Amino acid sequence: MQKTFQRFLAVPVLTITVMTMLPIPKMETQFGKLYETDCLSVLPHLSSGSIDLIFADPPFNLGKEYNAKFTDSVPERDYLSWCERWLNELIRLLCPGGAFFLRVSFRGSAV
Fold it and tell me: Alpha-carbon distance 101 to 45, whole Å?
């Protein structure tokens, strides 16, 4: 009598959860956290309508040398797309009646 063996291959099912995590703060105090990163890696983690006052002083894409972590000279289309994304995030975060201040540069401007 011949025995028949069946082989079963156990393949674990992997569930991959992609967790978007905040970067590590550069500094943290009882008053808050300071991040040295592109704002788009932090802003999406904040609750909508949770900020009373926003002051933004973005890079102006003028070719200024900051450090090895940032390039201030990118194609205009990329820069404007980036600006649109962070501005939309700030609008989402601003509470009703909140204030938004944007520092602008007139260098290279027609104004």
Answer: 21
- pLDDT over 80 (residue 77): yes
Give CA–CA dist 42/86, Å, rounded: 10
Phi, psi of 9 (to 5 degrees): -95, 115
- The per-residue pLDDT for 20 is 59
Residue type, 35: Y
Give CA–CA dist 105/111, Å, rounded. 10
| CA dist., res. 84 & res. 107, Å (int) | 20
Residue ranges of E strands in 1-111: 27-29, 32-34, 51-56, 94-102
Q: Which residues pair with 33 in a beta bridge?
A: 28
Distance CA 58, CA 86 (A): 10
Q: Report residue 110's pLDDT band, with 50, 70 and 90 as the boundaries.
A: very low
Q: What is the average pLDDT across 8-34?
A: 67
pTM exceeds 0.90: no
